[in-house]
Every structure is written in structure tokens, then in C-alpha cells.
Amino acid sequence: MTSVSETISTTQGELEKLVGDLRGLLANRDLDGIPEIKQLRQRLDDGVQTVRDAAVRAAQQAADQAKDAARAADRYAHDEPWRVASAALAVGALVGFLLARR
Q: Where does the record place a coiled coil (predicted)?
């Protein structure tokens, strides 16, 4: 199972490769005579920067959500230790039962 960070890294790598190929195509000096190419180059650079900023924001939000979930779990474990211990005991008993049946 791939993690979110691996998926983001793979997607980012593919996007960077695609942008690099497109930049290589647009860098062709034979195209400098076409006025729309300069505008297209600028739009490409702006779009890449926008995507990078969005990816950074998404990663930061995911990290913040993970931290909030960890804090909530920690708070619950400290507020209700017997419930957590009971749940751990139940899960351990179930796993033990399933392994014993093997």
C-alpha cells in the first residue's frame, strides 16, 4: 500500500518531467518569432508556481490534520485510560484467538 507522501512524490515527479519536456519544446529558438510563445511560456511558469504552492498547502494541511488527530487520540487516552486499556485487551484477545485457530 502506497502512502500519501509516496503518491504525492510520484505525482510531483511526473508533473516536473512533463513541465520539463514542455519547457524544452518551448525553449526552441525557432519559435521566438511567434508572439504567443512568450505569453505561453509565462503562463506555463505561472501555472507551475501555482501548482507548487497548492501542493505545499495541501501537504501542510494534511500534516496539521494528522497532528490534530494524534492530539485528540492522546487526549482521549489520558481522559479515558480504562476504556483504552479495555479496547487494547479486546483486540489482543481477538488476535490471539485468530492466531490460535491457525
A: none
The closest of 21, 18, 15 to 55, measured between CA atoms, is 15
Domain range for 92: 4-101
User: For the chain, what's the residue count?
Assistant: 102
Rounded-to-integer distance, Cα 3 and Cα 54, Å: 19
DSSP 29-91: GGGTT-HHHHHHHHHHHHHHHHHHHHHHHHHHHHHHHHHHHHHHHHHHHHH-HHHHHHHHHHH
Tell me if 44 sits within 8 A of 22, measured CB to CB. yes
